[in-house]
Amino acid sequence: MSIFSEAWDWLGQPNRWSWTDPAGIPYRTVEHLSFSALSLVVAAALTVPPALWLAHSRRGAFLSSTVVNLGRAIPSFGLIILFWFLASRWELNTDFWPLLVALVALALPPLFTNTYAGVVSVDADAVDAARGTGYTEAQIMFRIELPLALPVILAGARVAFLQLVATVAIGAIVNDGGGLGRYIVDGFAQGRAGYGEILAGGVAVIVLALLCEGLFALVIRWAVPRGLALRNARQPQVL
């Protein structure tokens, strides 16, 4: 029997599509997305406000480039293992905190740099006009710069979320939940008998990533006015 037949047989088992069975694909998918979404929200809360303020005040250009370079250089698997050891040493929940902290750390660079780049690229004439009409600095940030930078910020969130979806699968190595990546880890543990499960799990992660990419594209298209999106598409983005 080929590996593709094994994967098809594995997918055809009734319990694979149960919403209540922790080993079911729907259950694992929700678990996978929950971890990814939580990490993105935490990273955005930590990153967007300071990046917005630094860009508004035209400070932190060096910090922005340093953050994105560090984000590209640090391997995600290394972060997960590092935080797993730290959580074990501090007697924390090793099924939750190591993966969450690692995912948040991975999401910080694209969110920070895109927020900074988006605000810096806002037309200076629009900002000057707002100041001339009596806007405060806070009003300029939240009523002028943030809305105009929204397409670039959402592009950073899109990149970050797709990276998180891929990394949650790797996190199954240290996380008993692990989302869809649990199938890959469990399949490797079975040796040759688990090849079908490995293939099915890998395909499930790919399909989920593609669906999230399409969904994010729809959200950006819905949230950003067409004219503003076209304007920002002509400007450089730091991802």
From TrEMBL:
Domain called ABC transmembrane type-1: residue spans: 29-216
Pfam families: BPD_transp_1
TM annotation in the entry: 35-55, 67-87, 99-122, 148-174, 198-224
Keyword vocabulary terms for this entry: Membrane, Transmembrane, Transmembrane helix, Transport
Keyword Transport attributed: yes
CDD domains referenced in this protein's UniProt entry, alphabetically: TM_PBP2 (cd06261)
Membrane topology recorded in Swiss-Prot or TrEMBL: Multi-pass membrane protein
UniProt keyword annotation of Transmembrane present: yes
PROSITE patterns in alphabetical order: ABC_TM1
Subcellular location: Cell membrane; Membrane
SUPFAM superfamilies, per database record: MetI-like
Family according to the record: Belongs to the binding-protein-dependent transport system permease family.
Protein's name in the database: ABC transporter permease subunit
Organism of this sequence: Amycolatopsis dongchuanensis
